[in-house]
Amino acid sequence: MSSQIMFRALVCGAVVFPGLFYAFRKTLRHSFRQWSDADVVSVSERLVSAIHASLATAAGVIVVTSCRDTMKDSHWLVNGFAVFGAPYMVHDIYAMYLSHYHVQRVRGQSGSCSSHSLQIVKAFVRKEWMLILHHLALLLVFMPITLFFRRGLGDFFIGCLFITEFSTPFVSLGKILIQLGLDDTRLHRLNGIVVLLSFFTCRIAIFPFMYWMYGRQFGIPVHKVAFHLPLQCNVGNMAILAPQVYWFILLLRKAKRLYQRQKRGKEDGSKDRPKTD
Predict the structure, then answer these.
(1) Spatial distance between the Cα atoms of 152 and 83, rounded to a whole number of angstroms
(2) From the CB of residue 21, how many other CB atoms can be counted at a distance below 10 Å?
(3) pLDDT tens column, 203-261
(4) Contact of 48 with 95, CB cutoff 8 Å
(5) Cα 45 from Cα 147, distance rounded (Å)
(6) pTM of the model
(7) Residues 6 or more apart in contact with residue 161 via CB below 8 angstroms
(8) Whole-angstrom Cα distance, residue 140 to residue 10?
(9) 224, exposed or middle or buried, with CB in 10 Å at 0-12, 13-18, 19+?
(10) In sequence order, what DSSP letters do the residues of 43-70 get, joined into one string?
(11) Which terminal residue of the chain, N or C, has fewer Cβ atoms less than 10 Å from its own Cβ?
């Protein structure tokens, strides 16, 4: 891919994601006048995140299904989407901070409650440090490796990493349903199940799948593939996988709390129901 095309993709991403965020904020503020700025910013961020994840998943599926050779086959979408999606990482950090800022204003915890401050930034970094680190790692480590240090190899695996975003739209939908007051509905419960299944499949199970595909091509048992790969490949995969496992555990705990709360609600409802002879 030429440098001119890469520059155009970068500019396109820098326009599309902030532009969508701005458009969603304007639309939601007009459509839901009862919402606070925190509500509008939070839902707008989730919608943009869902769109980026959907595009990443689509790009990943195209790349993976197009590459027969896991190492040598290439597809222009790998570099193209890596550059196009880079501005999203910067934008999303800003959008998360803006959401945090407005939440603190609503709670009256932002000092003057009207201006940004170093204290708010520090509180945001402490709260969202893992997501910030995740975004920065993708931007400062994953993207340079994808563009400059792979020597044109492994597009199949980069496509698989794009597919890890498949669960994000469902995570965003869950947050939006809560915002709309639909957290006690069948749709929210069904979406929660989809979140768990898609997160485990596309963010955790996809790593042994990549090793299995590599082993199948070169006739290596899956449990021996790691010993045939360079150390940096295994370390990189573990660095990406570790936070996914952590977030999945958090999702399981949240699902357990939700199930227990609903169970207690049903039990309390049955106790309050008048008995009839």
Answers:
(1) 15
(2) 23
(3) 999 999 999 999 999 999 999 999 998 888 899 899 899 999 999 999 999 888 887 87
(4) yes
(5) 27
(6) 0.89
(7) 60, 142, 240
(8) 15
(9) exposed
(10) HHHHHHHHHHHHHHHHHHHHHHHH-SST
(11) C
